[in-house]
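Readers of this paper often ask what the protein records in our data store actually look like. Nothing more is needed to write down the fold, since each code stands for a local backbone conformation. Below, we set out a record of this kind in full and without editing:
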Amino acid sequence: MILHDQQTTTLELGPDPGFASIVRTARRAGRTGARDAFMVMTSEAETGKGIAVILRDISASDAGAVAATVEAVTGAYAADCGGYGRLELSLCAWQDDVGAAREAAGLARYRILEIAPGQRIANDFFASHASDEAVMAARQLFP
């Protein structure tokens, strides 16, 4: 056991002071849930494309299923990012949170995927969604 006489505080648990607060404020405007995405990952992809994965209904789900889904999503992104340079994973307990996360991702022009806890996530999850996006774009160009 380690004893010390310092006051306990949560000051170091706040947002990164090195990240511009003006950007943080705009990113979370109108959100009722978490202030920022639960997890952000970047890849070596040279594109400016980002993808937002929204994990919905977490309050009605088993914590183990939520954790397993988070691990599966991050593992799939690490295995094959599908050309997306940035992944933002948001945990949403309520439908209002989902709407706010969708709106924020739309403003950032990210591809939006909504999943549920316990959903099977394959290792090619991001690559397959990137190819679906390319097919949809081609259909718009060449109807």
Helices lie at 21-27, 63-79, 95-107, 125-141. The two ends are 69 Å apart (CA to CA).
